[in-house]
Amino acid sequence: IARIERLEMESQRDRGRARLAHALAEADKDGDALHVAGQIADVATRVTALLDLRLTLEGLVAMLALEEATAVINAVSGDDRVPLTVALAAAHAALGRRHRALTTAHQLAEGEERDRALARVAVALGSGGDTGSAQELVASLSDADERDWAYEELTRLLARVGRWDEANAIGQRISAADQ
Predict the structure, then answer these.
(1) Distance in angstroms (rounded) separating the CA atoms of residues 151 and 15
(2) How far is CA 25 from the centre of its chain?
(3) Distance CA 91, CA 130 (A)
(4) Model pTM?
(5) SS in 3 state form for the chain?
(6) Which of 44, 123, 136, 139 has its CA 20 to 30 A from that of 152?
(7) 7: number of Cβ within 10 Å
(8) pLDDT value, residue 176
């Protein structure tokens, strides 16, 4: 940590702390990982690191990381809150908490912001194997760019595991020529 603290720019120190927190989590140093993540000054970097800890760890420290990330997001207002809420919704979905993910996404204003969150939730659900729910959710999106992005990601997920027919069927739903 001493090397990280000697870095010249705060953003460099924050990125170093986030990487250190992840490494500590991987080494089963849960409490130390949470402590280091809590020292990150930049709100977005701190939330990302805390959500990473929640997805990496199990047990009490994992829950504390999620609670801290949620508290940090709740303290943010305006446009800065949107990407953090999107990340939180996706993390809930990755943890298999579909209802909580959808509730979190619906905190955002209707339109592109909410559709972005719902697209991320859908991809996380698909990554967890719930491709049926993911496809239903993507089909409900009104923003074409977010819908196409989610379909493309689901197509990639299915192709990676050799589910070619499903991947092709979803890929056919992409409307943008550049996707």
Answers:
(1) 31
(2) 18
(3) 15
(4) 0.87
(5) CHHHHCCCCHHHHHHHHHHHHHHHHHCCCHHHHHHHHHCCCCHHHHHHHHHHHHHHCCCHHHHHHHHHHHHHHHCCCHHHHHHHHHHHHHHHHHCCCHHHHHHHHCCCCCCHHHHHHHHHHHHHHHHCCCHHHHHHHHHCCCCHHHHHHHHHHHHHHHHHCCCHHHHHHHHCCCCCCCC
(6) 44
(7) 14
(8) 62
Alpha-carbon distances, residue 144 vs 4, 147, 154 (angstroms): 42, 5, 15
For 45, other C-beta atoms within 10 Å of its C-beta total 18
Give the separation between CA 84 and CA 51, rounded to whole angstroms: 10
pLDDT more than 90, % of the chain: 93
- Cβ atoms within 10 Å of 3's Cβ, excluding its own: 9
Residue partners of 110: CB distance under 8 A and separation at least 6: none
Cβ contact 107:85 at 8 Å: yes
What pLDDT is stored for residue 178 in this prediction? Answer: 54
Place of tokens 């992005």: 149
